[in-house]
Design goal:
- By secondary structure, the protein is of the alpha+beta class.
- The protein is built from two helices and seven strands; from the N terminus they run βαββαββββ.
- The chain has a single domain, classed as Ubiquitin-like (UB roll).
- The strands form two sheets. It has a five-stranded mixed beta sheet with strand order 2-1-7-4-5. Strands 3-6 form a two-stranded antiparallel ribbon.
- A hairpin with a 2-residue loop joins strand 4 and strand 5.
Length: 80
């Protein structure tokens, strides 16, 4: 029983030590513990989003990932 954690964009470079999978179920506090303090601090930023099972969460603190879900950490989008 596991949840996959995927870091995208610049978060990927910062999160080299983040495990690819963690035990299910996974909530907000469990995610913060799993990714370590540097990534956890970034996740608290309103511009960083979280998707669970393919859906971007309106309230990322309501994360409730279950066995087989993928949790994607989405950095702010930039461009022009």
């Amino acid at each position: 029983m596991a949840v996959a954690i995927v870091l995208l964009g610049p978060l990927q470079d910062l999160g080299r030590d983040v495990p690819g999978q963690v035990a299910a179920p996974l909530d907000w506090d469990g995610l913060l513990a799993a990714v370590g303090p540097a990534i956890a601090e970034l996740l608290r930023d309103d511009r960083v989003n979280i998707a669970c099972a393919g859906r971007v969460l309106a309230d990322k603190t309501a994360l409730d990932a279950r066995d087989g879900d993928e949790v994607a950490l989405l950095p702010p989008v930039s461009g022009g």
